[in-house]
Amino acid sequence: MPAAGRLLHPDDFAADAPVVARALIGATLLVDGVGGRIVETEAYDRADAASHSHRGPTARNQSMFGPPGRAYVYCSYGLHWCLNLVCRETGHGAGVLVRAIEPTHGLARMRERRGVQAERLLCTGPGRVGQALGITRALDGLPLNAPPFALWAAPPGLSVLCGPRIGISRAVDVPWRFVLAHSPFLSRPALTGTPQPRPTPGARGFC
After folding, report:
1. Neighbours of 57 (CB within 10 A)
2. Cis bond leading into 67, ω under 30°?
3. Which pLDDT score, from 0 to 100, does residue 198 have?
4. CA angle centred on 168, ends 24 and 59, rounded to 5°
5. Hey, what CATH topology would domain 10-195 get?
6. Residue 97 falls in which region: left (phi positive, over 0), alpha (psi -120 to 50) or beta
7. Rounded CA separation 162/41 (Å)
8. pTM of the full structure
9. Which end of the chain has fewer CB atoms at under 10 Å, N or C?
10. Which residue has the higher pLDDT, 51 or 76?
């Protein structure tokens, strides 16, 4: 388990998706004891044309509309299960896609699931994260503060960059991709970016 940090609560996800996405960099995410440090995220909001929630609730995206602090799981291109963490109030439609993790727990199970040995290739990309952590549709809508999930807050003092999201065709210039600076476990190198200060804790969520 992480040496320090507190377990996150649904209230921590009540803030806007970009705020939560930045705050999650450096957080430790485990699913049935398997996972590691989140090093790359992307934020999505209902007002955002690239978001699954942009056109309103459907059978596929219902979990993205809350309540906050739940998992939203979808299948990408019919091949890969991707994990999102739901934000904002119930009914809004916002979330954070976990794009990459630095593996620290359960590496043997990750290697078995992924069929690769190289540590860097285990969780570099949302599809790989889903496969390595055993994400399936069965986890859709489950609370992040209860088994099989465990999620610890990031430590202070991390250097975080932001820039445009990748792998999308709409709203491509929105700077809602957040990465841990200098991490070798990113899905794609952060060639450019803007340093992002850690959000100041407040009464609601991370804001």
Report:
1. 14
2. yes
3. 54
4. 80
5. 3-methyladenine DNA Glycosylase; Chain A (3.10.300)
6. beta
7. 10
8. 0.87
9. N
10. 76
